[in-house]
Write a structure and sequence with these properties.
Distance between the termini: 57 Å
Oligomer: single chain
Number of strands: 0
Length: 41
């Protein structure tokens, strides 16, 4: 399938209200590695 074969007519355009609510969190936050032998500081 080529890009030209895709029908995008049923997808509404993005407006300002969408962009005001949109948020990107990247990269995802990973918890710090914790060793069982380590004591909290």
């Amino acid at each position: 399938m080529k890009d030209a074969d895709i029908d995008y007519s049923d997808i509404p355009p993005l407006d300002k209200s969408f962009l005001n609510k949109a948020a990107v969190v990247w990269p995802p936050v990973k918890p710090a590695p914790h060793s069982e032998n380590e004591s909290p500081r």
